[in-house]
Amino acid sequence: MPDIEDVTGHSNDSRLERLHSALESGRLQRVQRLLHSLPTAEIALLLESMPIGKREVAWGLVDVDDRGEVLVHVAEDVRDGLIREMPIEELVAATEGLEVDDLADLIEDLPETVTQQLLRSMDLENRKRLEAVLSYEPDSAGGLMNTDTVTVRPDVSIDVVLRYLRLRGSLPEHTDALFVVDRTGRYLGVISVNQLLTLGPEQVTAAVMDTEVRPIEVTAKATAVAKQFENLDLISAPVVNENGVLVGRITVDDVMDVIRDQADHSLMSMAGLDEEQDLFAPITVSALQRAVWLGINLLTAFIAARVVGIFEASIVEVVALAVLMPVVASMGGIGGSQTLTLMIRGLALGHIGRSNTRELFLKELAVGLINGLLWACVVSGITLLWFNNLKLSLVIGLAMLINQINGALTGFWLPLLLRRMGVDPALAGSVILTTFTDVVGFLALLGLGTLILL
């Protein structure tokens, strides 16, 4: 096995394999050197990828100075497990050096005794900064922001600003600009570090500051913040309260966390799972978490089964109807899922609003109609060749057309209705859509079969 320092450039799969190998062989010093050489976010990824027993061993080898940052980056379920195994004094030591915004993300998961001890160890200024961040919703700009802003007045020269920065000695991470505020703290604009380094020292801040950089309202949703960063290619952005007073800043690393969480949420919600779940959670815990979703799905399946039961006599008379039922249901489900996915994505990105809902509805309806006619002809032709029954081919063609239109309509309106009800469309949409397309597909096929064939 090569020296552990040589693997830091490899993929996560390679690092994970080497880490497992070192743990199994008892070469803990090699594990420790690997973990010490990695950024905290990558350590968190490795810990999430390990079974609980090996994870506990590896966690004990993580550098004490890195543990607080690692706890911020791991998924919530993994974090809870790590925290439970840590003595109080270790938890306090791990969290003492964290930035205020990171500490705000972590503090709700800490035991009460640790929280109290941590607050007592903080100076008054940092405690107030933490309280300010915690006073806002976690998924808002206020919950994302850090209060470590560097501000200057509009009436000072560049030379004065540079001397002030030299006295500070350092700048907060991801500082690409300073914020210009008046004497009451109201936000006026920004002056970039690039300007400070290239403009003449006699220039006055007010004359060169950029007033076009819009501040973010402290109550803005995290998704809106991420969209603004994406659209404007921001590295940092000022955050203001309802009076326009600067209260903090949001940096690109915080926004990347939001984007990653959104992607994880969208993917996991489609299966009714939580993006914060531990991949290696105990079997009973995982089974219980998934049982709820399976129960909901079973209920909807019985609804569809009941519809089929109503037409039991028709199925007995024309067995071909039972053979063709899955075709109609699955094609309607796929068509509806395509529309549903586009709608959920459009809502998440803010592309859908009152001004364009009608045009989008007509477009999706037309797509459903065209695909319905196309595949109705295809399936009718196959059915005619298969069963040599013209009426049966007509029945399935009409049922296919009806269910394709139903899928498009359901996929369009369902996420809008769920969102208005305060329900996450990504979580509940697919199950409800499947129920609608199954029920309508079975009703159309078996109902038309009863009318035309019997």
The share of residues in extended strands comes to 5-15%
Helix content: 55-70%
- Low-confidence runs (pLDDT<50, min 5 residues)? 1-10
Order of helices and strands: HHHHHHHHHHHEHEEHHEHEEHHHHHHH
Q: In what order do the strands lie side by side in the largest sheet?
A: 1-2-3
Individual helix count: 22
Shape: globular
Q: Kindly, what is the distance between the CA atoms of the first and last residues, rounded to a whole number of angstroms?
A: 74 Å
- Strand elements, count: 6
Structural category is mainly alpha
Largest sheet: 3 strands, mixed
Radius of gyration, in Å, reads 29 Å
Would you tell me the overall average pLDDT? 84
